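BUG: 3D viewer hangs when loading the predicted structure for this chain

Environment: internal workstation, default settings.
Expected: structure renders.
Actual: progress bar stalls at 90%.

Input used:
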Amino acid sequence: MSPDLTIGQALRQGIKILTEARIEPPRLTAELLLMHALQKERVFLFSHSNDTLSELAWIHYGRYLHERIAGKPVQYITGRQEFFTRDFKVAPGVLIPRPETEHLIELILALPQPLGSIADAGAGSGAICVTLAAELRRPVIAIDLSAQALAIARQNAASHKAPVHFLQSHWLSALRPASLDLLVSNPPYIALTSQPILQREVRDHEPALALFAGPDGLDAYRILASQARDVLKPGARIVLEIGSLAARDLFADWLSLEIRNDLAGRPCLLTALRP
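Structure tokens produced before the viewer hung:
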């Protein structure tokens, strides 16, 4: 890549490089990386396509392309990911928020209000707890074992002026008995045996603590099913993101157990009431 390129030429060259490296989607990826190198929005790429790319932007853009080809997710390169119309800071210490997790937010926002005391177990970047606190305009407790994740979640809460209280804890062990009306979580649910077949972007870059849950992928659900009985009030609700129906049996004796599917018909959410 030559430093004597216009912005338009740099974009086209980036698309070509990513296409040859079989990075999908090449155009969107090149646009995002060039936007990050220039610290500009997408419209700038096309309204200034004939401007010469500065040497500093060229150096950054080349590095970002190299990192992406090596498998680093775009979100960790740019340090950001949109979730439920908000921009969230992300870093290698937290799971990248997924669009499918927005189904969890939609389910909760559709519940009868007010919801009472709410906690998000395994908060990560804070995508769930910050979004709920901002949308509901009420405090949410964010729980995570990782100090690094909590630091990032705090930044996101501050950015969006969301009333979130942070608690470093191994799942729910630091909460008082019968203190919650609603518990939400997107826990790790990938079996360790599936590690070799994961996409390299996930396997090699996202935190194992947020991905893997024992040999069968159910360890986190077992802990939550047990601890939630103590911290939820009788009749209080739990809402969990799931990757399969395997977690259902752990909540078989809970009330109003329901599995929600995503638009592709795959099970994505479990909701139930504490007996």
